[in-house]
C-alpha cells in the first residue's frame, strides 16, 4: 500500500487554505493510504499528473480543489509519496517545473532545489541575483530569479572580479566532505555576502544551505561536520543516490512519515507545526546544548525564533531532569504564558509537562509569599501611587505621587535598597535627573518607608514588594523550587522580578536560560545582569535570521527605531552591530493618512475585505489599536461595515482557533504573537506617544526619555507581528514615531488601495 510523507516546509501553506479546502486535502491524503498504487494514480478526483516539462521527472501534481494544487514526489521504487508543497493552482505547475529532488549521499537526506534558477546562474556565469518578490513561488516565500546544468568538472566558473567571495576560505574538498554537491559548489562560489546566501535559501537544497550558512558565519569545517552533517547521517549504512524511499525516511528534520489518519490530520491541522521539528542548526545548538556553565542569553530581533528556542530548551531540560527536579518556563504577561503553555503542549509529552511550571514571575512570587503569609493579596501600581500621595501629604512633602513612585520603583526597589544609608549612598540615584540633597533624600526615604510599612501591615503588596519578599524567602532556602529556569520576553522584567527568578534555581550549570530583545521593550525597566548577580559573560548568543516577517516589512519597521540606541539585553552597553535579516519577501507595507475617523474606518474595512478576498482567513488578520477604547470602537465599526470582527484577548483566545472574525486587540496584547496580516490603526501623534503614560520631563528627564522609547518600541512590536501584510493608518497629526518617508508617501483621501 502507498505511504505518505509530508515535507514540513509546506505546512505554513496549510494555514492559508480555507476550511473546505483543508477538508478536501485531508480527504485526498487519506486516499494515499487506502488505495492501491494503480487505483490511486488513476483516481478521477485526484487527477495525479506528470508535468508536461520540468526539472524532475518524479514530480506530480494533484488536485485539492478548483483553486489549490498539491505538489508531490512520486516513488519510482518503493511506495512512499512525499507531499512537498501546496500552491494556488495557477502557480503550482510553474513552481513544480523548476524544482528537482536529489539524495544527498553524504547526509543520506532528500533535498529539493530550484534547479532552474540555480542552473541559470551557474550556467550563464552570472552574478547571483538577490531574491525578488512575486514569481512562481507561493505568496510570501522567497523566490529567486528563476533556470540548470550541472557543474562541469573543474574549479569555480563564476568570477567576481572585485569582491572577495563568501566561501573563499573553504576548499572544494571540504565542501564535498560536508555534502555540498558539484552544482552547489559552483554556485556558492558566486556569492559574496551572507544576505545573498539567505536570499537564495528557498532555491538551495535545504541541508546544503545549512552547511553553507554555518560556514558563512565563520564556523570551522570540522565543527560544521560535527554539528550539521553528522547528526543527519543515516543511522544504518549509506543511502544510494537513487534510493529516494530511504532518503525520505532519513530526512528526520523535515519530513514526517504519517502512518494513520489521525497523524495526517494532526500534522496538517497545525498540531504539528514546522517549528516543532525544524530548527536552524544554530537554534538547535542552543536549545539542545548539554551544558551551559551558568546563565545563557539568547537575543535577537523580532521573529528570529527566540521563543521557539526557549520551548525546545525546556524540552531538553525536562528530558534531562534529575529525580524530583522541575523546570520553570516564564514570560512577562499572562497572555504570553498562555501561548507558551499551548505551544509546550505540542512539543512535550504529557508526562514531561508535569515537571514544568509555566507561570509569570508575578505568579511565582505570589505562590512563594503565600506559603509563608497566606492572607497576602495583590495591589496595583495605581493603589501604590494613591498611598504615596497620601503619605506625602501627611509628611508635608512637596513631591508629587508620580515622583515618589518613580523613586520607589526605579531607585529603591530596582537597587534593592533596604536602609536609609543605602539610599544616601552617592551612587544610589546615579542617572536620576532631579538632584536631591541629603535632607531631601531623608524625607523621601522616610515617606516611602512609611508607605511600605502600611502596605505590609495591610497585607496588600504590589508586584515589587511581592518579589522583594519572594526573593528573600527563596534566598534563605537551601532547596530551590526549580532545577532550571527558562525566561522568554526577558526585556520587560523589573530587577525585583529578576531577583526572584535568580533565587528560584541554585546557581550552576543550566540554571538560567534567557531569551529577549531590547528593541521590543515596551515597559520602562532597564536591568544590569551584573548587578543582579547573573553572570552571562561568554554565554551570549545572537540570532539574526527572521523567519516571520517579510524583508519589506522588517526594513520598514526598522525605520521606526532608526537613530535610537538599543542597549544589549541586561548590559549597559550598546548592542553590537549586526542586523536582523528576513528570509521572506513580499509587498511593501501600505500606509494611509485618512481625513477623519470615519474615513480611516472606511479605509480599514476596505483593506480588511481585500485581505479576506485574497484568501487570508479572518483569524489570521489582526487590527491593533493603542487603547482598549479604540479597540472596542473598531470592533463595533467594522461589524457595522459588514466585516466580521471581535475583540481578541490574548490570554483567553488562541491565535490558531478558527473563529470566523477578524481579531481586534491592543498593541500591548500582540506582543509575542504573529498574524498573516496586521493593521495598525490610529497611529496619531496623541496616541503614540500617549503622554498619560510618559513621566513628565520635569519629574525625571531620564525616565521621560525611557518612557518615550518604550512607546516607540510598542509601535515597532505591533508592526513586526505581521507575517505577510502590514497596513498602518491614522487621521489628523501622524505619530512622530512613524518613518518620515512613510508619512510623506502615505495614501491620502480617496478610497484605500487593495
Ligand atoms: N528555524 C526556523 N525555521 C522556520 N521557521 C521558524 C524557525 N524558527 C522560528 N520560526 C518561526 O518564526 C516565527 C517567529 O518565531 P518566534 O516567535 O520564536 O520568534 P521570536 O524571536 O520569539 O519573536 P518575537 O521576539 O518577535 O516575539 C514563528 O512562526 C516560528 O515558528
TrEMBL record:
One of its GO terms (molecular function) is exonuclease activity. Residues 129-146 have a biased composition (Low complexity). It catalyses: ATP + H2O = ADP + phosphate + H(+); Couples ATP hydrolysis with the unwinding of duplex DNA by translocating in the 3'-5' direction. It is an enzyme of class 5 (isomerase). ATP binds at residues 300-307. Gene3D superfamilies: P-loop containing nucleotide triphosphate hydrolases. Keywords: ATP-binding, Exonuclease, Helicase, Hydrolase, Isomerase, Nuclease, Nucleotide-binding. Its EC number is 5.6.2.4. Residues 279-550 form the UvrD-like helicase ATP-binding domain. Pfam families: UvrD-helicase, UvrD_C. Residues 129-158 are annotated as: Disordered. InterPro entries: DNA_helicase_UvrD-like_C, DNA_helicase_UvrD/REP, P-loop_NTPase, UvrD-like_ATP-bd. The keyword Amino-acid biosynthesis does not apply. This is DNA 3'-5' helicase. It comes from Marinactinospora rubrisoli.
